[in-house]
Amino acid sequence: SVKRAGGNACEFFETSMNQSAFERLVLENELREAVRDDQLVVFYQPKVSMVDGSIAGSEALVRWRHPTAGLLSPGAFIQAAEECGLIGEIGDWVLRRACHEAQQLRERGFDLPVAVNVSAMQFESEGFSQTVLEALQDSGLPPELLELELTESTAMREPERVIEQIEPLRRLGVTFAIDDFGTGHSSLSYLTRMPFDVFKIDQSFVRDMSQDEHARIVVETILAMAKSLKLKTVAEGVETHDQHQALRALGATLAQGYLFGRPMPFAELVSFASADGQDSVAG
Ligand code: C2E
Ligand code: MG
Ligand code: MG
Ligand code: MG
After folding, report:
1. How far apart are CA 80 and CA 145, in angstroms?
2. pLDDT per residue over 90-120, tens digit each?
């Protein structure tokens, strides 16, 4: 990115050229088309209660139905979207879509919060708060059912500004989560003052905690900190019953991972929510 190249435009250009300038150009053009031609879709991954396995909400995760390459994950295009300035447009679209579908779920009888990922560039852009308000108003979704996820590095880049931006939305009822928590460089003193509601424990710690004592200590420390700050916690990337049991014993609030459900189209989320309570996946 421009930052990594030290803000030197020529250096940035040369680095990109060395990598794959042509491929990147093709990708960017295709991404513009994707936004224009409605090729993006939002999938939803359930979050479940650690206590009884019931569905407690979902996370909206963007996908790209590429005309020839098939269904692409954000790993294949989010960074390009950031670098060519399309992330704001994509992020706003995901936000509106997620609010709209969460409201549709409500109309089917399920009052479940939806979490939306917000990139640093989108969050720092001028009209972001206004976009959130409009997405809520246009969909009719109560603010309490919208959660915004900022990564730890986004949250800690300019903490004072982040606090200023979050507080009015939070007073409205929108909740905020720190995503991929444990991987960034949080200042402890800021962390205790940041108006967040949820810590999402990064999946790398969940994956490693049974073999790696350090990972387990990170998980325990995050959970202890959340408890003192009276925040909720989501353990990401839970794939095995052992991980689930360990995290439950340590007191995490919610779990999200392949063990409970993969990211799925909206229609499947509706079925998932409907089946919930009849045959609990968590056991
Ligand atoms: P994230 O927000 O940390 O989302 C969790 C990622 O972990 C998702 O990958 C999800 O599919 C994956 N995951 C969930 N459970 C498991 C599991 O049990 N095992 C494993 N191995 N992985 C699991 P996905 O959908 O590929 O998204 C990757 C990242 O892309 C997200 O990480 C998020 O940072 C970003 N992203 C996704 N959608 C958006 C969006 O609408 N806007 C922005 N700015 N970023 C997005
Ligand atoms: Mg997330
Ligand atoms: Mg995450
Ligand atoms: Mg992640």
Report:
1. 30
2. 999 999 999 999 999 999 999 999 999 999 9
Report whether residue 46 contacts ligand 1, using a CB cutoff of 6 Å: no
Q: Label residues 30-41 b or e (16+ Cβ within 10 Å = b).
A: bbeebeeeebbe
Structure tokens at 4: 């990594």
Question: Strand pairing of 55-66 and 40-49?
Answer: antiparallel
Pocket of ligand 1 contains residue 62 by CB under 6 Å: yes
The ligand placed nearest to the CA atom of residue 94 is: 1
Nearest to 166 by CA among 136, 196, 202: 196
State pTM to two decimals.
Answer: 0.92
Burial class (CB in 10 A: 0-12, 13-18, 19+), 125: middle
Handedness of CA 161, 162, 164, 169 (dihedral sign): positive
